[in-house]
Amino acid sequence: MKLWPGLLMALATIAALFVSFYLLRSHPDGKRAAVLEKTAWQRMASPGDLSIAHRFLEHNCAACHTSVKGVEPANCIVCHANNAAVLQRQPTAFHADISSCSECHREHRGLHERPTQMDHTALSRIGKRQLISNPDPESEDRLIGDYFQNWIKQHESKGTAGHPDLTAQEMILDCAACHGNKDRHFGLFGQDCAQCHGSVAWTIPEFRHPPPTSLDCAQCHQAPPSHYMGHFKMISATVAGKPHARVDQCFLCHQTTSWNDIKNVGWYKHH
Amino acid sequence: MKEKEKVIVGGLVALLLILWLGFVVHRSPDFAGSFAGGVLAVAGSLLMLVPLIYLIIKRIPPLKRAVTKHISMPTLLAVHIYAGVLGPILVVLHTGHKFNSPLGIALTAITLMLVVSGFVGRYLMRSERMEIKEKQKLLTELTADFEQAQEEIRCSPTAAQELTTLQSFFGRLAMRLLTTRDGSRQTPLPAAARALSLSESIADVEYAIRTHETFKRAFGIWLKFHIVMSFVLYILLALHIWAGIHFGLRWFEPSGGAHFATTSQTVDPGGSSYSHLTSELPIASAADEFSQHYGRLFLRNWRPAVTIHGFLTTVFDYAAIAGEVGQPNSDFTKAAASLQRVDVALLDGGDYEKAFWINIYNFGAMKLAAEHYPVPSIIDPKISADDPWGVEALRIGDESYSLKKIENAILLEKFDDPRIVFAISCAAVSCPDRTDRIFSEASLDQQLDALVRGLFANSTKGLAINRELGVATLSWILKADQRLFGGSDQGVLQFVSRYVPADTQNWLESHLSEIKVEYFTHDWGLNDIALADTQTEEGTR
């Protein structure tokens, strides 16, 4: 068999594949590049639709992808610089100098997928990288960074003792730096969130709520503002039929199904 | 052997056909671009290029002749087959079951088709070819028999006569019924009958061969299909690799760990006040250069407090320092080398010179330990049989300096400051704890104060007070250099009281004359991290 005709047939097959994909593929931004345009061909390698907010870039690969270097933060910052709403809030203020986007903001996941996936390991990696980002080894920030890295190195060998749900890399993060405002324990459990919480969800799988017979509700639960300033005696305790109840005796009136499920009264929502 | 190969390859092809279907239950959008996915991709692609070798060798006769001298074609074909199945398996694993881009989908589909076409062609076509070969052998035998019968008929007229009777269908049928196979062996059939029967057999076999040939032609098309598909695959693979590189590979995203390896070479100078200036300014003098290298060496190898022989002490990683001895570009070597260019006459006589000589003494002690490492202490006979303080520790300019000379002839001679004896370390466990910075001109006073305070805060080697018994146990250094502190226990206590918390100070001052002074045993053991009782820096406290 001669190979040249085979090669021609192969090229014809590829052309046919291209045409069929070109005609079948959806174009979320509503337009279709001409057959001979570069993007029409580049889009054949597109690993999925962009999210709704980015779909106007469907036919402009170079808007985000620098050739060979990939998705550079600079390409994102062109549009996303100075986002006051993000930079002013404590939980998101870290964006100001993170200089790294695609680690957590992954695209091409589909039109209706949110292109954000928090990755604490990536955050730790970025932080470590930034410590020594100044190329001048004698510069002040680099000296501090190097020193800090040595410190991390010594501590990393200790593993994740006492922090069961963290990876070794996540151990160097300071939860409170971003989540400080979120502490529902009012600092009573200290700053070391990871002693109980993991880095994926705030809920603690091992946590079992005490049984309904427990009398210690007030150890963790605080009464709402509406239970103070006379309301409690005038309305709450009266409605529940427990005129002598104290505010910290939750169990006298409330049940574990819902705070509004009042004993012997049923569903009661005053406000 | 062939049968075994067929089973193994058949199993692998079946695995491949099941693998890609995994996308129904599992899809990982990130795996293909991760490092592990990348390794699979590269390994799979390389394996998929191996079958191309067979195609090339087979089609270039001179190359084929050269190669088959060493490796037989069947071996090459076996390599072709195994690589051609294993490569696609790795590549399908690399997808992470994410089939989204047209290019990726096409690539996976073509890969599967290629493997299946290869499998079908190889195993079905081969058995077909064997069949034809057997039939052809049979055909030659039959033809030979037939020619013999023909010859007999031509030679005897009766035989020819019989032939005519058999021309009718019923005649032939009758002959079949009347002659048995048994009889044909003992008494050969008439030649005419034999010729007829043979010609029928020949016709049958020829028909069978023709049918097989049709199949063979069909499999020939299979082969063409296989080759064309392989071209499509290689072109798409090239496009896929180009797209991966062009749009940015994620496999090699710099990770913190990758940078770690290099940091040990770039740790900073030891907090000398001028450290941040040296990056912009040319180094003012060889003495500054020394401080810079020694400062780095110091910071890099200083370690927080551990317990050695029951004493809580900051330590150094002497093994690492010893590793720098003799290394041409190490800070250790550079620090020692820069001293050759120092002109001590040009030093200013103030804190700059004081800090310089204290650092020189400490570097000298560190150097003695490092050059003879491993040593249990600086007073080990390995360093000097009788007087480690008298041997040459280092050279400055052309002059040789021992530790004794630096201490007595320079530091204590030039600078009237008893704190110096605490600052010059004999590289021993019982010496004062250090911070991770070397002494520098700008903060020398604070550094020395902090050092002395730190020593007296350490109750294992600096100061321990038993108020009930009225006993103060002090660092041995105070005893050894008592002359600097007024030459008496009271003088010593007065000095100590200046560097302790107010409460202790009051007690010391009010009981000055009654206190019984004792001294700690001086532990000369090297303050080396390798000698730590426990490796954790919390130690026992």
Molecular structure report:
The complex is a heterodimer of chains A (271) and B (541). Chain A has 271 residues and is mainly alpha-helical. Chain A has eight helices and four strands; from the N terminus they run ααββααααααββ. Chain B folds into two domains: 2-149 and 202-246; 286-529, no CATH class. In chain B, a hairpin with a 2-residue loop joins strand 1 (302-308) and strand 2 (311-316). In chain B, helix 1 (2-19) runs antiparallel to helix 5 and helix 2 runs antiparallel to helix 4 (73-94). The longest helix of chain B is centred in the middle third of the chain and has 56 residues, at 191-246. Classes of the chains: A mainly alpha (271), B mainly alpha (541). At the A-B interface, helix 1, strand 1, strand 2, helix 5 and helix 6 of A face helix 5, helix 9 and helix 10 of B.
Brief digest:
The complex is a heterodimer of chains A (271) and B (541). Chain A is mainly alpha-helical and 271 residues long.
